[in-house]
Amino acid sequence: MTTQASTEKKAVILLSGGLDSATVVAMARAQGYSCYTMSFDYGQRHRAELQAAERVARDLGVIEHKVIGLNLNGIGGSALTDSSIDVPEAPSEGIPVTYVPARNTVFLSLALGWAEVLGARDIFIGVNAVDYSGYPDCRPEFVEAFETLANLATKAGVEGEGFRIQAPLQNLSKADIVQAGVKLGVDYSLTVSCYQADANGFACGKCDSCRLRAEGFAAAGISDPTRYF
């Protein structure tokens, strides 16, 4: 008899609690994956996203949701981890100060470790190269390079059971993402996108992330459930 463990198609999904990552969980679930989600308490100023991630994971029926503690605020260098750097409330030129040094590299590395333990071969990340803030670790080149690394640096990769880094939002506009998520039943009222959300998850309506989110809902012709302070 074939056991469930041997046939189950597992995926580890990075879940921040925001709009994009919630959509990715729904997409993976729709593709038949058993979803294991991972969030990070990394010293971010918008910690309300962690509660949002738990709500999304519960609502979308993931198998297990794991929160990993990190101390990225120990190195600082970003408005999201250093309280002495203000979150900009106007579009920035170049790479903005909300970029967290090496964040997606660190997050994917830990997701890769968990995937190897679980026997999952697919890792999903909600990076986007269309409507995004200009972060270098959201580009297709980064995703491709990390997949190469994943298959060089792991026992599973060396033994021929390769990993895939899936970024299904890579070439979608924010409006496309919202429309896809609504079709898949994502409850966006559970999500928090704001870079300086308060403890209750209320958004500022001024930061880059709030602006992109609002523009996406408007372009999609869908009511935005974001709560603002």
From TrEMBL:
Q: Which keywords, in A-to-Z order, does the entry hold?
A: ATP-binding, Ligase, Metal-binding, Nucleotide-binding, Queuosine biosynthesis, Zinc
Q: Name one Pfam family in it.
A: QueC
The EC class name is: ligase
Q: Which InterPro entries match?
A: QueC, Rossmann-like_a/b/a_fold
Required co-factor(s) are: Zn(2+)
For this protein, what is the EC number? 6.3.4.20
SUPFAM superfamilies according to UniProt: Adenine nucleotide alpha hydrolases-like
Report the pathway entry.
Purine metabolism; 7-cyano-7-deazaguanine biosynthesis
Name the Gene3D superfamilies for this protein: HUPs
What is stated as this protein's family in its record? Belongs to the QueC family.
Q: What name goes with this protein? A: 7-cyano-7-deazaguanine synthase
Q: In which organism is this protein found?
A: Pseudomonas batumici
